[in-house]
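Take a look at the protein record below with the fold in mind.
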Amino acid sequence: MKKTKEMTTDHYLDDSTGVPSWVDRVVKATKPAEDLYFFDWKEAEFRLKFIEQHCRYPEGKKVGQKMKLDQWQKESILFPAFGWKERASGLRRYRNVFLGIPRKNAKTTLTAAIALSIMFQDGEEAAQVYAAAGEKGQAGIIYRAMKYMIEADKLLEEKCRVMRDSAEYTDKRSFVKVLSADARTKHGFNAHAVLFDELHTQPNRDLWDVLTSSMLQREQPITMIMTTAGTDTNSLCYEYWEYSRSVRDGLIVDDRWLSVLFEASASDDWHNPAVWKKANPALGGFLTMKNFRIEYEKALKMPSYINTFKNLHLNIWTETVDSWISDKVWTDQSLDFEHEDVKHLPCFAGLDLASTRDLCSFAAIWVDEPNGRYYLKAHHFVNRAQAETKKLSAGVDYLKFKEEGSLTITNGNATDHEVVLNYIRDFSRKNDLIEVAFDRHLAGFIAPKLLDDGITVVPFGQGYVSMSFPSKEFEKMCLNGTLFNDGSSCLRWQMGCVIIERNPADDIKVTKNRNKNHQKVDGIVASIMALGQFLDYKSRTEDGPSSFEVVGLDF
């Protein structure tokens, strides 16, 4: 079988006469892994012509005007979805199209137009086209857009019989119909096309399984998923979102699955307008920058809205929890201080040693009590396999963190604790290191060796008893402007991953979503441990008993 990487665009064209310039861009972006398909650019333009001549905007300032698709709508979605065909049969290549896109990028309008194109242009006899959603009201949004388009176009209206929840193309005995997860019956279907809107709202996979399994007798069925990111990483939507990422990134080869994902990554700077544009292809067009900034500024003022902004407007999968310390507060407290500025100050450190296949962090706080200022710096360690492998890194740019000097990459596929040990030894020689707090769970190798070197190490519990008081003090010091971080993007990214767990006694501790391997909070935990060790030391040396309990372990 010939491999497509050696093929030119002309190889995939059945007619290379008068080929438009966009064809080369689309073919190169969606070239199949196996040489079983050709690109019918005239079919792609046939679909576009139908939409732009017969479909009208159903709402907004352009309501009633004929649709005019933007370049990204054509070249990322419409053209590849309908232009690629099987060489042997001439039938459609793609059976699944997954469009992940934030709100207000005209997803519903485009979906409605594509649904009508399928019903009118596929030529399928008795085609059943379903607009499906988690709730009937959501599914109805797409159908109302289709209904408006049909009734606003004389030809389409003549060809259709329009009802409350369905429209029938009488010449072909085909129909488009609204369907939701709460429908009383979900059997007896013979779907030709299914358009799932906001897949993350599906309460379970029942409707998905029933509809997609009903397509077996169709020659060229198609399932289109158009959705924003959700919050449940155990959901059907997240399962297929991750599958789409894997197809897009080349980790999975699936020539029948078109992945179109407009999203910011977990480590992207959500304050950066370039990141906004990356996730929102319509930004600057029918999605105005002015309105987008209003949502952004709302998130700046209301930390509890940050995750909502990231989720709905940047397409980042987030938990439905409040943020802890806002990014604005964190960056306002960033200070590019030099080691020479703080090396004379007493220093306390925290060591969070994760497994050898995860991120390890060593954080230090230099204490300037007379001036009420505290300086924080953290260094991280990860193995090379984790840093350089797409699947293991889960999209986190560890190489960027290495370049900025906040991370060390150790050789092999397991983080080398000997490298961590030597880093701490060198740090101790250059600083007035008073005590090091460590998580006793994984420090059996490093802690005894530091003790042998004359470095005071103290085991530090990771439960509410030990973590709550220093976590609250950490937050208070960030908010009142006395704790300065060194501005590293690695620690800033981790602060954005923080989830606060709270018990009935209102004790708190830092954690992360356990289903999101790309999220890390080890550096934040180590930073809190460092502060906690200082607070414990101060309490022991000045006031007697500690004001909180550090649960230790004897060697």
